[in-house]
Amino acid sequence: MPDVSGAGRTLAECAERATDCKAYNRGMNESHLQFLSSPEWAAMLHTDLLPWIESVGDLGDDVLEVGPGPGLTTDLLRRRVPRLTAVELDATLAHPLRARLRGTNVDVVCTDATRSGLGTDRFSAATCFSMLHHMPTPAHQDALFAELNRVLRPGALFVGTDSIDVDVIRAAHMDDVFVPVGPETLAGRLAAAGFVNTEVDVRDYQFRFVTRTPVRDQLGSAESESG
Ligand SMILES: C[S@@+](CC[C@H](N)C(=O)[O-])C[C@H]1O[C@@H](n2cnc3c(N)ncnc32)[C@H](O)[C@@H]1O
């Protein structure tokens, strides 16, 4: 495993160092990628993810999705929100997704979401589904939380799902980046990035979380939650 522990090094820089950093040529192995493009995955998203998304609250008028991959989660979201921006680091996934969704309510941006360049206080909600463990270090994950806190409006939702570190999931990530987030650490890490009222629901293979940016009169409690 290459040394990618420096928080200052972006994923894009890692990708450019392809010979030293082979894992970032493609953040996913081929069978993982095929599964995320499959009708089976689309069906699972409809039966498992969609009812939960609909239960967490209104995502609002301008939503950011981080890490769409082949775009099946994008398809789920785009039919339910007026405007969606999907930020994907991997150009070999972002460009076909942009071509497929041209003329729809989706903008696909190919960049590192930890330094997106998107507007401060712009988005009504942000989502990240099964992507946090594809980031090379916890420091990169924390940088993403801080960036999302910047681009979200006060009182906006940030919702996500991610993998638990169990043998079967780890095995499926052979030759992938796999840096699972400990769900017990998540609320504290989100608070450090400025989020409040975090709820984490841990399942057998996955956890789900909902958190929020503070409304103005919660700013003091956000600071005290992060200690
Ligand atoms: C496992 S895929 C998830 C795809 C989709 N959300 C789903 O659940 O079907 C994770 C995606 O996150 C992307 N990703 C990882 N780090 C990223 C970053 N810093 N910025 C944007 N996208 C990133 C990867 O390139 C990959 O396409």
CATH class: Alpha Beta
Instruction: Give the tally of β-strands.
Output: 7
User: In which order are the strands of the major sheet placed?
Assistant: 3-2-1-4-5-7-6
Helix count equals 9
Radius of gyration: 17 Å
Helix content: 25-40%
Quaternary organization: single chain
What name is given to the CATH topology?
Answer: Rossmann fold
Largest sheet: 7 strands, mixed
Contiguous uncertain segments of 5+ residues:
1-25
Question: Which small molecules are bound?
Answer: S-adenosylmethionine
Count structural domains.
Answer: 1
**How does the overall form come out from the CA principal axes?**
globular
Strand content: 15-25%
CATH 4th-level superfamily: Vaccinia Virus protein VP39
What average pLDDT do the residues reach? 87
Terminal Cα separation, in Å? 33 Å
CATH architecture, by name, is 3-Layer(aba) Sandwich
Order of helices and strands: HHHEHEHEEHEHHEEH
How would you characterize this protein structure?
This protein has 227 residues and is α/β, with parallel strands linked by helices. It has one domain: 3-Layer(aba) Sandwich (Rossmann fold), CATH 3.40.50. It is 37% helix and 21% strand. It is built from nine helices and seven strands. The chain has a seven-stranded mixed beta sheet, sandwiched between helices. It is globular, with a radius of gyration of 17 Å. The relative contact order is 0.13. The N terminus is likely disordered. S-adenosylmethionine binds next to α4 and β2.
